[in-house]
Amino acid sequence: MNIEQCINNANDAHLSGNTDKAMQWLKQAGVLGDINAALDYAYYQSKKNPNESVAFLERAGCADNAVVQFHKLQISYFGGVVTHSELVAQTLLSLGDKGVIEAYLVALSYLTVGNEAFSYIANKVCLLAPNISKQLNLVSEDLKHSEKSAYQQAIEEIASALTRIHEPSKVLDKSLPIKVYANALSEFECRYLITKFSALLQPSMVVDPVTGQGRTDSVRTSYVAIIEPSQCDWITRKLDKTISQVTQTPRRNGEALNLLRYAPGQEYKPHYDGLNEINDAAMFKDGKQRVKTALVYLNTVSGGGETLFPKLDIRIAPKGGNMVVFSNSDENGKLLLNSYHAGTPTVSENKWLVTKWIRESSTIYGNLIYGNYTKG
Description:
By secondary structure, this protein is of the alpha+beta class.
């Protein structure tokens, strides 16, 4: 049986609702060398058994393809199959040298913007993908030291960043609590998230308590891009991993990341992120209560745009790269009244941020991306 027949059989099985059978046909197409089929099966299998997924990609007919090797590394790293940070760093740069631009972009996300290692990789991106480098405001710069020295610095810095443990820089309220994590994202990562996902922006909505459906409302006037599972990449998974670590919650309990843009004058009036099991019944089914919220600012706003906790008289000014984490409910799922908060209007510039809500149990998003895998 050839690749086309396998894929046709997979499509037929999918249309009939038999996902497992469809994936078995894609697996066979991958064994025969079809890249897309191999990756579809590998990601499907990675939710159940990352080790088996990696082993499959190593024996697939397209195993030598650099793009396949990149996705094998992604599955290996986030699935806990590969834990040697220096090996991950070396493989990323090796794949970048083979023309996988995404590997270089991932490498940049672990480097300090403006240093020799960052400039070394940025120069590679400018040469390999000038349009992408322009969109991300990357410029080619002369290196102060040799490329060999910059390469080694990049390996060491990426390897160190891969094992970073984030600690709060401030605890603004101990009862809720409200914790601030400085530099949770780099300047490059902030630009990357805005550049890649801003095309998905739609008017933000609130949940209608009667119908349970989303609707626009003057209480929330921003724009939002929901980053669906099919759009997730290494850098969004990296942020999921960071939020999982600082909140001490499984990655599978998270909702999808939301990119938000507040234009001057736009706001989110005081509200609770926590859910009411009766009024928010439809949403509550997917993971139960929203136990925590993570807000990650993607730019620094000079006027307005603060995250306001009116009952605590706390205002947090947006600073690019900083993350704010707070609880919405207690250990019994009861709403914490002091979690009442707002996004105040900006004065003269856009405010960009990423939000993530963490549920009491696994979500549809979490299961699609991380399945039963439990490590942070």
